[in-house]
Amino acid sequence: MTERLYYNDSFLYDFRASILDVQELKREGTQSTWAVKLDRTAFYPTSGGQPFDIGRLTTQSKSGVPLEVAVEDVFEDDDGGVWHRVSKVLPPGAEVRGLIDAERRRDHMQQHTGQHLLSAAFVQLLNAKTVSFHLGEEISTIDIDLPAVSRDDLMRVERLSNEIIAEDRPISIRYVTREEAAQIGVRKLPERTGQIRLIDIKDFDLNACGGTHARTSGQIGGLLIRRAEKVKQGARIEFVCGLRAVSAARRDFEILGEASALYPCAPSDLPANISKQREDARAVQKREARVLEELADLKAAQLIHETPSERGPKIIVQVFQDRDAPFIKLLAQKLTKSTSGVIALLGSAQSPPALVFARSSDLSADMGSLLRELVTAAGGRGGGGKDFAQGGIPDKERLQQLLMEAKDRVA
Ligand SMILES: [Zn+2]
């Protein structure tokens, strides 16, 4: 078993130990990854929702050459041994000095101790139990056994947590038996037997935990609930503590600043400005639809007038460079819906190139099968009914030729 130095001092960042065992984890070409088991360690191994510490191990080779390796992962085995993943082999039996990345450890302590506080506040105010905890790279979450939490309740829980932080209550560690823990009444009694480590936030929360914690609630620095969402087992609460809360607030404020500079307006005027702009955009869209409808009417009348009327149907063939697919569809409907004896073979050269074949209801040519056959041959896709069909081809240069071929086929 490895002695866990962080059990009694979460602020121990520099320690000495001996190497009990070294194992090769994997080998890729000439590059190996090694795991080093120490007799004692201040490195926290991933467990209980809290990720591992990183840092360095330094020692000397048998010939006295200084060796230093980065600790890239820390994990525990079933027998209580703690293993440190490194990319260089270290000599078994050697004395090492371990150096913990203090910034990452402090961040983890702030998030993790904040979680104890948050879970206790949910029990006190809403009688909601925490069923799981995850400490992520940017945000942390707890899942609580409530189907939904109102905004007001979230604010009350956040407020209480921050009051306890502001009171800077001592956080102490003690060891009890399972029976004692059950008697005292801890928030969540663990399954396992034997000695139990209790984390006591004075007069607020008592819980069994093997993680690294702040010494006082004040060291959590502050707690910000970001949002709540529904999950299978209840509600997932996203939160950040300490310096992460400051970074999150800073990021949010910068985004707000960028958005309000675009208008420009004060950040507090953004919601009103955005809804006004959305209303304006809807009005413009409606006006544009009306204008396009009128334009299609006029264009249809012009095309029917300009196309010579001989015996047989009027076949109108045109490729539009500056009109999109919705417009040529609209125009094809205008040309064929209320006029008899018209076939419209229209193309749009905009990206992606599109075409529409349509005919008046008094004619019998099958637009759907004709269009499908021609666009498939041109490497495109499309289809439709007997009187109206639409599709697209990859190359706009072939539109005119394809429409002329369609004209020959229906003529
Ligand atoms: Zn804990």
Give the arrangement of secondary structure elements.
Layout: E1 3-4, E2 14-28, E3 31-38, E4 40-41, E5 55-60, E6 66-71, E7 73-76, E8 82-86, E9 95-100, H1 102-126, E10 130-135, E11 140-144, H2 151-166, E12 171-176, H3 178-184, E13 196-201, E14 205-208, E15 223-231, E16 234-241, H4 242-262, H5 270-306, E17 314-320, H6 325-337, E18 342-348, E19 354-359, H7 367-377, E20 381-384, E21 388-392, H8 399-410
Parallel strand pairs: 1-4, 17-18
Antiparallel strand pairs: 2-3, 2-9, 3-8, 5-6, 5-9, 7-8, 10-11, 11-16, 12-13, 13-14, 15-16, 18-19, 19-21, 20-21
Helix pairs in contact: 1-2, 5-6, 7-8
The structure holds zinc ion.
Zinc ion is lined by residues 112, 116, 199, 209, 211, 213.
Short overview:
35% of the residues lie in helices and 31% in strands. Helix 1 packs across helix 2 (151-166) and helix 7 runs antiparallel to helix 8 (399-410).
Features:
411 residues; alpha+beta; Elongation Factor Tu (Ef-tu), domain 3; Threonyl-tRNA Synthetase, Chain A, domain 2; Diaminopimelate Epimerase, Chain A, domain 1; 3 domains; seven-stranded antiparallel β-sheet; five-stranded mixed β-sheet; 8 helices; binds zinc ion
Could you describe the 3D structure shown?
The chain is α+β, with helices and mostly antiparallel strands and 411 residues long. The protein folds into three domains: 3-100, Beta Barrel (Elongation Factor Tu (Ef-tu), domain 3); 105-261, Threonyl-tRNA Synthetase, Chain A, domain 2 (2-Layer Sandwich); 290-410, Roll (Diaminopimelate Epimerase, Chain A, domain 1). It has eight helices and 21 strands. It has helices at residues 102-126, 151-166, 178-184, 242-262, 270-306, 325-337, 367-377, 399-410, and strands spanning 3-4, 14-28, 31-38, 40-41, 55-60, 66-71, 73-76, 82-86, 95-100, 130-135, 140-144, 171-176, 196-201, 205-208, 223-231, 234-241, 314-320, 342-348, 354-359, 381-384, 388-392. It has a seven-stranded antiparallel sheet with strand order 6-5-9-2-3-8-7, with no helix packed on it. Strands 17-18-19-21-20 form a five-stranded mixed sheet, sandwiched between helices. Helix 1 crosses helix 2 (151-166) and helix 7 runs antiparallel to helix 8. The model has no long low-confidence stretch (mean pLDDT 94). Residues 112, 116, 199, 209, 211, 213 line the site of zinc ion (ZN). Zinc ion binds at residues 112, 116, 199, 209, 211, 213.
